[in-house]
From TrEMBL:
This is Hydroxymethylpyrimidine/phosphomethylpyrimidine kinase. Residues 11-254 form the Pyridoxamine kinase/Phosphomethylpyrimidine kinase domain. GO terms for biological process: thiamine biosynthetic process. Pfam families: Phos_pyr_kin. GO terms for molecular function: ATP binding; hydroxymethylpyrimidine kinase activity; phosphomethylpyrimidine kinase activity. The keyword Cytoplasm does not apply. InterPro entries: HMP/HMP-P_kinase_dom (IPR004399), PM/HMP-P_kinase-1 (IPR013749), Ribokinase-like (IPR029056).
Length: 273
């Protein structure tokens, strides 16, 4: 069985963060593991408080996984401070895992900040060069590329600018755009568009976590980046289409619908043992 590690924040309400990542991993038939970087007291409406785990404990959790288990892919989510980023980067440099997907989480869907604004420079210096695939949404791409994004052409320019910071591929996600949900992938060679019609729902808590974890699961199964993104896009679209009206704010994506509909065939999971 393929083994995928999430290094991210904990969302106690279960819709985003490590909880969404583990649900996504299970629905893809891969074995999920988690390193908690921050504990976030949040729900579908608001973030109440954030407590970061110490750098020492982040490092020890990563050691515990890598000294014992072969990791086929890593998904990195919320890293709230430069200290958290440095702790994670140090261990990734030590273990050099394959298939690193980074979702540079900056805000929750309800607008609450999840990353210190001053940490963008450290993100660019220490984390982005370690990413095989970086998945910023539009506001995140604007901060990283230091430009405004209001058109598809702007998304392409931002993807190329961010690619030049040292990651192997960038997908600027169009969840925050108007019109169709278009994601733009640049792999250093070509630009690819992944487009679906926009689903009219407020229940999009955890879409970015779901999407990046689906990409990491697919890369673990040895798919190309293009195929991994195409299949992750189909997965997140279905998870939004059947999203759950849980809580009073933005409800979470639905991982069970995908599982019931498609099951876990050997062909889908790539598991032969
Ligand atoms: N209403 C929608 N209809 C269809 N697809 C959507 C919708 N909202 C987001 N998506 C898709 O979901 C994926 C995640 O994109 P999004 O821009 O929402 O990420 P995000 O803002 O990082 O998510 P998060 O808020 O979890 O951090 C992308 O593939 C995007 O196109
Ligand atoms: C711990 C954690 N990580 C990531 C997100 C982003 O997800 P969203 O923007 O959909 O709320 C979140 N809310 N909480």
């Amino acid at each position: 069985m393929k083994k995928v590690l999430s290094i991210a924040g904990s969302d106690c309400s279960g819709g985003a963060g490590v909880q969404a990542d583990l649900k996504t991993f299970s629905a893809h038939g891969v074995f999920g593991m988690s390193v908690i970087v921050s504990v976030v007291a949040e729900n579908t409406s608001r973030v109440i408080d954030i407590q970061d785990v110490t750098s020492d404990m982040i490092g020890k959790q990563i050691d515990a996984v890598f000294e014992d288990i072969e990791v086929d892919a890593v998904k990195i989510g919320m890293l709230s401070t430069p200290e958290c980023m440095k702790a994670v980067a140090e261990k990734l440099l030590k273990y050099s895992p394959q298939n690193v997907v980074v979702d540079p989480v900056m805000y929750a869907k309800n607008g609450c900040p999840l990353m210190e604004p001053s940490a963008v420079d450290t993100l660019i210096e220490t984390i982005i060069p370690l990413a095989d695939v970086l998945t910023p949404n539009i506001p995140e791409a604007e901060k990283i590329a230091d430009m405004q994004i209001s058109t598809i052409a702007n998304m392409e320019v931002a993807a190329k600018k961010i690619y030049a910071m040292g990651c192997k591929a960038v997908i600027v996600k169009g969840g925050h755009h108007i019109g169709n949900a278009i994601d733009i992938l640049f792999d250093g060679d070509r630009v690819y568009h992944f487009e679906t019609t926009r689903i009219d729902t407020k229940n999009t808590h955890g879409t970015g976590c779901t999407f990046s974890s689906a990409i990491a699961s697919n890369l673990a199964k040895a798919m190309s980046i293009q195929d991994a993104v195409a299949q992750a896009k189909a997965y997140v679209t279905m998870a939004i289409e059947h999203s759950l009206a849980i809580g009073n704010g933005c409800g979470p994506t639905n991982h069970f619908y995908n599982l019931y509909k498609y099951g876990l065939s050997e062909e889908r999971t790539g598991n032969t043992k």
